[in-house]
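Please decode residue identities from the backbone states below.
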């Protein structure tokens, strides 16, 4: 269970452009009730910038729905992903097709691309997100839950306002 939770945590980080993430070798199936928590820290100071907990509330062959709570925020946020953890809808932005995600099976050197159209659900602002992800290396990651064999996935995404480039 802790391997799957660490994997989901790291998969979520891949969704944040400009970041790297690790992916466990075989995370197993995602199940309702799976939960993971993580801290986003400032690289320079080491201070926690945000503490997040995600819980899988529904899953089927097309989507994974999570409830995401951030410390200090009043309401949790619903986020919907495709089976590869590509973001579809986070309550503020909707992507079609989904975001870049993690394409299995992972192996060093494997690369995949994403091209999605997005819409800000509050403002109506449209954008286009073009990304590339690459499996950079295999490494061991130690966290409070234990030590895990993982892949490091590097991702770059360029988002362009389609109305004002």
């Amino acid at each position: 269970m802790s391997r799957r939770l660490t994997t989901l945590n790291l998969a979520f980080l891949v969704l944040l452009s400009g970041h790297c993430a690790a992916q466990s070798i075989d995370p197993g199936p995602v199940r309702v009730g799976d939960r993971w928590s993580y801290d986003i820290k400032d690289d320079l100071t080491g201070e926690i910038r945000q503490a997040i907990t995600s819980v899988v509330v529904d899953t089927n062959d097309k989507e994974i729905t999570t409830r995401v709570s951030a410390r200090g925020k009043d309401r949790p946020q619903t986020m919907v992903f495709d089976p590869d953890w590509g973001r579809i809808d986070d309550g503020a932005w909707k992507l079609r097709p989904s975001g870049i995600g993690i394409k299995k099976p992972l192996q060093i050197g494997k690369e995949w691309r994403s091209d999605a159209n997005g819409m800000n659900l509050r403002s109506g602002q449209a954008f286009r997100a073009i990304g590339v992800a690459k499996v950079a290396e295999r490494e061991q990651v130690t966290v409070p839950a234990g030590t895990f064999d993982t892949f490091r996935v590097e991702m770059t995404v360029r988002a362009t306002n389609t109305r004002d480039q």
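Observation: The chain is about 10% helix and 55% strand.
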